[in-house]
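Narrative of accomplishments. A recurring question from our advisory board has been how the design workflow behaves on a single, concrete structure rather than in aggregate. To address it, we present the structure tokens for one chain from the evaluation set, followed by the sequence designed for it. No filtering or post-editing was applied between the two.
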């Protein structure tokens, strides 16, 4: 049978419209052109779906993301190798008033439309009535793409204890819109952050952008991460923060814009370990810590227009 290739665009996936209703398989394995026999596609449509459906087509879509996640996690057999089913979840555009306390493992979650359309008219916006859009114990071996998460108040937008071997692409994390930030953090990792890639992630209207603490006492660290094309704007405390316990070895921040001048950003980068490698990044902030002459690792980086190389 013929396969439909969903082509990745810089600001999201091409809309494939109603054609998805008539295809049983959509290519999702990057570069393979294959749908795995063990994999399924699940669908969510907040407007026309129902949680009484099975979610296996857009015609029988779930109404809530939570229902889809429950169905996908029920398919995992941890005794298998590999355990990951590589399922794909497609979410139709709309505003989803959900606080996600669980996310599927070993799968892809893809929003249709434009993630940067904040009000959910042409893209997927996840904004609960209260609390955090994402508040999970673990997200592992998954890919999240073309999604917007908006905080309804002061709570962190995307908070995870263990965040390992994931890909985040074309993601918007937005605090509560206003003249000054009230949302505390954009992406907060509490215990473990290993082997992730974040690409084209926009974090806005928050006190702190990326905030990584980790629990070094339990041998949980933040190593081997790639942060690229990160835009942090409307931030007034710390753009990117790594606690000294995080020991972010082999972690790279590159090709990014941290701070935009709309608010006075105290620290563009606050790396208490001094291990993060930073390249081709522009900071608009009062300072970075460590400074370029105090142990930082900067290559072709600028702080308020002044070159801060030290390599």
């Amino acid at each position: 049978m013929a396969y439909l290739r969903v082509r990745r665009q810089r600001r999201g996936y091409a809309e494939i419209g109603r054609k998805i209703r008539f295809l049983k398989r959509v290519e999702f394995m990057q570069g393979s052109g294959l749908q795995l026999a063990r994999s399924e596609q699940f669908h969510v449509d907040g407007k026309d779906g129902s949680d009484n459906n099975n979610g296996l087509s857009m015609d029988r879509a779930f109404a809530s993301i939570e229902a889809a996640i429950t169905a996908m996690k029920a398919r995992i057999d941890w005794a298998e190798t590999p355990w990951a089913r590589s399922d794909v979840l497609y979410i139709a555009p709309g505003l989803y008033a959900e606080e996600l306390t669980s996310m599927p493992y070993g799968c892809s979650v893809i929003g249709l439309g434009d993630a940067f359309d904040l009000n959910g008219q042409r893209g997927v916006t996840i904004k609960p009535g209260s609390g955090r859009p994402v508040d999970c114990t673990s997200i592992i071996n998954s890919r999240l793409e073309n999604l917007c998460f908006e905080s309804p108040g002061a709570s962190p937008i995307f908070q995870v204890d263990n965040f390992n071997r994931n890909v985040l692409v074309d993601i918007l994390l937005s605090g509560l819109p206003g003249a000054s930030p009230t949302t505390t953090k954009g992406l907060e990792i509490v215990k473990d952050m290993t082997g992730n890639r974040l690409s084209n992630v926009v974090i806005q209207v928050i006190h702190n952008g990326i905030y990584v603490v980790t629990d070094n006492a339990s041998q949980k660290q933040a190593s081997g991460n790639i942060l690229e094309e990160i835009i942090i704007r409307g931030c007034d405390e710390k753009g990117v923060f790594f606690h000294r316990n995080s020991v972010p070895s082999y972690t790279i921040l590159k090709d990014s814009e941290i701070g935009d001048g709309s608010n006075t950003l105290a620290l563009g980068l606050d790396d208490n370990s001094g291990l993060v490698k930073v390249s081709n990044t522009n900071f608009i902030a009062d300072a970075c810590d460590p400074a370029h002459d105090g142990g930082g690792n900067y290559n072709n980086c600028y702080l308020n227009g002044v070159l801060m190389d030290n390599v």
